[in-house]
Amino acid sequence: MTHDRHTLELLAPAKNADFGIEAINHGADAVYIGGPSFGARKGADNEVADIARLVGHAHRYHAKVFVAFNTILRDDELEPARRTIVQLYDAGVDALIVQDMGLLEMDLPPIQLHASTQTDIRDAAKARFLQDVGFSQIVLAREMSLEQIREVAANTSCTLEYFVHGALCVAFSGQCFISHAHTGRSANRGECSQACRLPYSLTDAQGRVVAHDKHLLSMKDNDQSANLRALIDAGVSSFKIEGRLKDLGYVKNITAHYRTLLDGILEERPAYRRASSGRCTFFFTPLPEKSFNRGATDYFTHGRQHGIEAFESPSFVGEEAATVARVAADHVEVDAMVDIHNGDGLSYYDSHRELQGVRINTVQGGSLYPNEMPDDLRPGTVLYRNRDQAFERALEKKSAERRVRTDMVLTETATGLALTMTDEDGVSACVDLALERQPARDAGRALSGMRDNLAKLGNTMFEPGEVRLDLREAWFLPASVLNGLRRDAATLLEANRIKAHRRPLPLAPVEPPVPFTDTELSYLANVSNEKARAFYRRHGVQLIADAYEANREEGEVSLMITKHCLRYSHNLCPKELKEYDLRGMVKAEPMTLINGSDRLTLRFDCKKCEMHVVGAIRKNVLKAQVVPVTFHRTAPDGVRVTRSGH
Q1: What distances in angstroms separate CA 645 from CA 21, 194, 521, 620, 626, one per listed residue?
Q2: Tens of pLDDT, residues 570-628
Q3: Of all helices (H) and strands (E), which one includes residue 156?
Q4: Which of 605, 612, 614 is closest to 575 using CA atoms?
Q5: Helix (H, G, I), strand (E, B) or coil at 535
Q6: pTM
Q7: Ranges assigned E (strand) in 471-621
Q8: Residues 567-582: pLDDT tens digits?
Q9: Hey, what domains does the chain have and what are their CATH numbers?
């Protein structure tokens, strides 16, 4: 199967079915949602019945529903996972987003598989391997540049999916173990404790403080709005919005924003087409800066750059709104840069550079009366707005509608009339009505009335295209008759559209099995069950270590591998200093991150331009996780070694 990269897909997140329905209404060509278990976002699980409801709504527009099934699995979870996949397939789900290769060794229904970003796709060789083993769509690493994407596109034919908006994990996805090491909560099992958003101090090799109490592993949020054309040219055809834990306002606003941008590109590039049907009308102006964000960056799309970090705060600061002019007992007087409304949320940095928040009850001219008067506001303090009450109220109402164009033809039959509706995808519905025809007294008025009545599709998912009356003469028809005919035809057409939806077929793996890109796998490969081991052995891997979550790694190891580099952020990169002959000013390594009693060593792989955050699993985590297990490895001579332990 070769994917047509001229079909562009906007892929939106859904915390639940209702959010997913609104994402479709606001222009998503596909949504991704967590199932009842095994999704890499705890707190975003959904019952199969709710997903089936979302599927029914999506398929009316020939949009798709993908289920995130992207945790690593233990052996005892494989059969429950298989049963759940069967239920999801029976519910009409279009594809699964997976990380665990053990699933490819199981007897699954014919559902399409997508490779999660947690499979760590950073180069063309890995991408091609995943395509060759049966993945129809692959989610590229967020860190990839346009040049790297082009290389992947040149070596694959599957759909390339790329994150265009939302939160950025500082580590390569699937390559972060700090949460498990410190709390026992594994990011690869959907329980990330977000250690990357904590404050740290940074010291150099001599113990000197480089940065104090900053959020040094916290990135700004991804925003590829300006790069969509370049991404299309590079080979991306699925544009993914992050946010399965975000609120409904975020889903509506950001989906509408990218729908508007992509529609503009589709208008100027007729060779490209949408992946689903219908056109959206928005009852608000999408403004991505109004929804939760930590500032905007396009990350490494154009290569390494400064300014990707959100060191000051991992929270939503908002837009600059006002400067405090005077502080009174119960209000503050400000010089405002925007119109501040009753109910707005404002933020500011206190004297300790900590972000604080305040809700405004009443605005009277330049005076703001908060619900609780802060005690640390000073004249000159800059206030930011991180909740625009008027904008949020607009999103709480019906904020979009999506309609599919349909042509209508009214014809005569031997016993009466027939109305045929044919939509933009060529799906048709025809409804007959037996009645005695009588000529109208005023032919012109009658024909005009028929057209007007047939075009009244307001309570349906359709909008009128051409309305044709294929009649020998103008007949007298009561409005109630035409309304009933139109209503029945629209109901039948909607049902026929759902029947006409064709789920994408899975991609057959290449035979004989292609070799993996390496013959040895460390804990970084996240192998946690016997099926996954069998998969890799079948593809030529000889040594297979257990996943980090098995607690086999002794001593300090890389708990996080990241493209973000703290030496580069602090202008201490040897490659840059070399240009100015200043390399002697900085030792290569190590540097140290400090948070309370935690000390994490930073190692720098300058050849790959990557930073490793090194540490050991905490003893209390080990004690809490001590369980009898059986684990395996295959030696180079093919002998399988099995041993039990704790």
Answers
A1: 48, 30, 21, 18, 9
A2: 999 988 876 554 545 555 578 999 999 999 999 999 999 999 999 999 988 877 764 44
A3: none
A4: 605
A5: helix
A6: 0.94
A7: 520-521, 543-544, 557-562, 591-595, 598-605, 610-615
A8: 999 999 988 876 554 5
A9: 7-168+219-276+284-290 (3.20.20.70), 169-217+515-646 (no CATH), 315-396 (2.40.30), 404-500 (no CATH)
